[in-house]
């Protein structure tokens, strides 16, 4: 089977990936959830003109002369409006957030006044509208301020609350089940025996999925048998997983049984093996509504494939309005040799110079087992298939890794 180009593999994984159904959730639980509907303000903010400062509400026409004296006829605090109209020669003591009383059209801050009983002397002329927040200056009833497909940030929750929403319609979070395979794997903290290694891949992949808003189901490690692997696949279906992520066992060895197990369970394979490095032995298929991504066992290959393919799929199922990683331009920090038929994703550190120039320095050792280099990397430099040799200082494209 020919190696599938990366762009074609991503298109196959995203084919038909529609947003999951909506659900109503409390505003307190809506951080980083994705809106399923536009959100229009249920009220005008502020609903009336309000003071932006502590001071005195006046008629600007009466307070154009700094030497004028006005009579203070009352007080306005936030939540306690003044019922009378401000007449000629009158002023009202007002505090921040207080409703501007009828008749007043300016606020003189208290630092620019002196008070003697109920007699107010101003030291600065009033200007119409000064220190007043006009009704609706923030938003008006019916204004759409949060749109469908938006992933809600912390500030968005405050805005939704101000718009008078105690709950919001969001898309259901995708469920991602992670199943590792391999007799050689032991859990962190154990003492590996001969030929064994500590299982690391799942920790980064599960964190990656959670960071994108997915609900994660850890199915643990399956032994290198078809029976154990198929049992894990069934557990993913029983748990209602939208995505099954298998880790390891995707290559061509006698003990790499994931593809065989998936097909035995009825998974229709879309592709197996792609033209990229790291990550060639990756596969994808469907089992009913459950999408299956089979990742290689090498930890760097596993993570890079998760970043490139799992993340956009989670975003698509979540209803996000932007699902693809943005590409950036930079200058290479060192020479690179010509590339072969596979698209390379080189782990790189980034340097930003004072003039804004971004330098990408690919690490010297790109082996797909090197977790130290992966953890230190800040980006993936993309090298297209058959790219010619590139010299230090030449332009390149990159994808930033999560911070």
Description:
With 403 residues, the chain is an alpha/beta fold. It folds into four domains: 6-20 and 172-318, MoaB/Mog-like domain (Molybdenum Cofactor Biosythetic Enzyme, Chain A, 3-Layer(aba) Sandwich); 26-45 and 141-171, Molybdopterin biosynthesis moea protein, domain 2 (Alpha-Beta Complex), CATH 3.90.105.10; 50-133, Molybdopterin biosynthesis moea protein, domain 3 (Molybdopterin biosynthesis moeA protein, domain 3, Beta Complex); 328-400, Beta Barrel (Beta-clip). Helices cover 19% and strands 30% of the residues. It contains seven helices and 26 strands. It has a six-stranded mixed beta sheet with strand order 7-4-6-5-9-8, with no helix packed on it. A six-stranded mixed beta sheet has the order 16-13-17-21-20-18, with helices on both faces. A five-stranded mixed barrel has the order 22-24-23-25-26. The relative contact order is 0.13.
What are the defining features of this structure?
single chain; 403 residues; alpha/beta; Molybdenum Cofactor Biosythetic Enzyme, Chain A; Molybdopterin biosynthesis moea protein, domain 2; Molybdopterin biosynthesis moeA protein, domain 3; 4 domains; 6-stranded mixed beta sheet; 7 helices
């Amino acid at each position: 089977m020919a190696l599938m180009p990366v762009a074609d593999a991503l298109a196959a994984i995203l084919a038909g990936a529609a947003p999951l159904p909506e659900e109503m959730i409390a505003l307190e639980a809506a951080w980083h959830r994705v809106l399923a509907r536009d959100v229009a303000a249920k009220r005008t903010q502020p609903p009336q003109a309000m003071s932006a400062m502590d001071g005195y509400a006046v008629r600007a026409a009466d307070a154009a002369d700094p030497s004028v004296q006005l009579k203070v006829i009352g007080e306005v605090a936030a939540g306690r409006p003044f019922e009378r109209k401000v007449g000629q020669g009158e002023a009202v003591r007002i505090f921040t957030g207080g409703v501007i009383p009828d008749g007043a059209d300016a606020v003189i801050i208290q630092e620019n006044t002196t008070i003697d009983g109920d007699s107010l002397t101003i030291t600065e002329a009033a200007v119409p509208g000064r220190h007043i927040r006009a009704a609706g200056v923030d938003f008006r009833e019916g204004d759409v301020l949060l749109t469908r497909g938006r992933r809600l940030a912390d500030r968005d929750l405050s805005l939704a609350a101000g718009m008078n929403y105690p709950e919001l319609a969001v898309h259901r979070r995708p469920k991602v089940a992670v199943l590792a395979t391999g007799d050689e794997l032991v859990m962190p903290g154990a003492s590996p025996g001969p030929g064994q290694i500590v299982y690391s891949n799942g920790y980064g992949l599960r964190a990656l999925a959670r960071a994108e808003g997915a609900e994660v189901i850890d199915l643990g490690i399956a032994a290198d048998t078809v029976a154990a692997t198929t049992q894990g696949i069934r557990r993913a279906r029983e748990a209602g997983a939208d995505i099954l992520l298998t880790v390891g066992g995707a290559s061509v060895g006698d003990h790499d049984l994931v593809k065989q197990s998936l097909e035995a369970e009825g998974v229709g394979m879309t592709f197996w093996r792609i033209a990229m490095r790291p990550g060639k032995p990756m596969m994808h298929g469907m089992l009913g509504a459950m999408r299956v991504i089979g990742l290689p066992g090498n930890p760097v290959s596993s993570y890079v494939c998760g970043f490139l393919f799992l993340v956009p799929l989670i975003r698509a199922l979540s209803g996000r309005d932007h699902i693809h990683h943005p590409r950036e331009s930079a200058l290479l920090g060192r020479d690179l040799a010509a590339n072969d038929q596979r698209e390379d994703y080189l782990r790189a550190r980034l340097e930003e110079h004072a003039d804004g120039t971004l330098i990408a320095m690919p690490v010297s050792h790109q082996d797909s087992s090197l977790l130290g280099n992966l953890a230190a990397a800040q980006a993936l430099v993309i090298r297209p298939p058959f790219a010619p040799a590139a010299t230090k200082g030449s332009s390149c494209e990159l994808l930033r890794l999560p911070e």
